[in-house]
Amino acid sequence: MSFFKKIFGKKEKEELDHSLEKTKSSFFGKLSRAIAGKSTVDEEVLDELEQILISSDVGLDTTIKIIERIEARVAKDKYLNTSELNQILRDEIVQLLAENNTEEVEDYLPQGAPRPYVLLVVGVNGVGKTTTIGKLAHKLKEQGKKVLLAAGDTFRAAAVDQLNIWAERTGCDFYSKGMGADPAAVAYEAVQKGRNEGYDVVIVDTAGRLHTKINLMRELSKIKRSAGKSLEGAPHDVMLVLDATTGQNAIEQAKQFTEATEVSILALTKLDGTAKGGVAIGISDQFKIPIRYIGVGEGIDQLQLFDKVAFVDALFEKNVEG
After folding, report:
1. Residue 255 contacts by C-beta under 8 Å, 6 or more apart in sequence?
2. Domain at 117-307: CATH code
3. Separation of CA 274 from chain center
4. Domain boundaries in the chain?
5. N or C end of the chain: smaller count of CB under 10 Å?
């Protein structure tokens, strides 16, 4: 894990702590009030905890799972102290994430990835999709990778321009057929260019369509097939970008997109702007799709690899320590 530790250093830990501050303040403020004056974890405390988890956008199904696990702990130890509740809750959430497919990754480019590694990026408008692409391109460029950004969102001229600006800003190459072009053709030709010109990574943007419009969602399948025709096995990952500030709506978007295409990884943005950071726990648990990246600020450097232990530690740290 030495390379991961090099990526996840003191600066990254501070950024993660800061990005979860609103979630932490909201969650633990409610939890402190719920256990005030109580010495043991009883049914009333568990009922309060259930409401707190739901209001923190952990989600009903995941909340029930967590509460049942804590109830089992309480059944073993009839006199479980409320001062232990934070640590027990932390342990159960880490265990829950460990049981899912959210794994620690050591590099912004997956170990053993083919060359070129083709990443298809999906998500609704406004979630920070193009910005996430730009931040990821920056991280890859810093590691000496040759990166091509492909403008597959051909429905909005602004989207093409925005991706081009990110390409210039990060020193990556840019491929576009202009507004109104067939996105599947963009994907096919960008992957061909990636193969022919020795790129390490090809990132294909897609239109930020509403997840309720099934006819538009079907187009994702066409884009995916075109990439596969250009290079067998491509795209190697389909990344769904979700905005943490939307809470339960992010879970609904994840549901719709996973039904429409084979989403293999997630990026969760805007954690620093919300008290709904608990949504990361619910999404990981419900969809069994690994969270690969998290956005912890607006800066070009403020994209991190998701580390479940570091995430939960940052959520609980102050309270466990004091």
Report:
1. 287
2. 3.40.50.300
3. 14
4. 2-102, 117-307
5. C
Q: Is the pLDDT of residue 260 over 60?
A: yes
101-111 in b/e form (b: 16+ CB < 10 A) is ebeebeebbee
CA distances from 70 to 12, 193, 261 (A): 31, 53, 35
pTM of the model: 0.90
Closest CA to 127 of 214, 219, 213, 244: 244
Looking at residue 295, the DSSP 8-state letter turns out to be: E
Fold of the CATH domain 2-102:
Four Helix Bundle (Hemerythrin (Met), subunit A) (1.20.120)
Chain-wide mean pLDDT for the chain? Answer: 88
The C-alpha atoms of residue 116 and residue 107 are separated, in whole angstroms, by 16
What are the tokens at 119? 């990443």
For the record, the structure tokens of 35 come out as 């256990």
Q: Residue written as tokens 């501050």?
A: 21
Which residues fall within 8 angstroms of residue 97, CB to CB, at 6 or more apart?
281, 284, 285, 308, 311, 312
> Could you give the percent of the chain with pLDDT greater than 90?
48
- 199, 146 Cβ separation under 8 angstroms: yes
Length of the chain: 322
Q: Could you tell me which residues are beta bridge partners of residue 81?
A: 40
Q: Are strands 147-150 and 173-175 parallel, antiparallel or unpaired?
A: parallel
Of 219, 252, 277, 215, residue with least CA distance to 22:
277
Q: How far apart are CA 321 and CA 239, in angstroms?
A: 36
CA distance 294 to 49: 26
Residue whose C-alpha is closest to residue 229's, from 185, 181, 174: 185
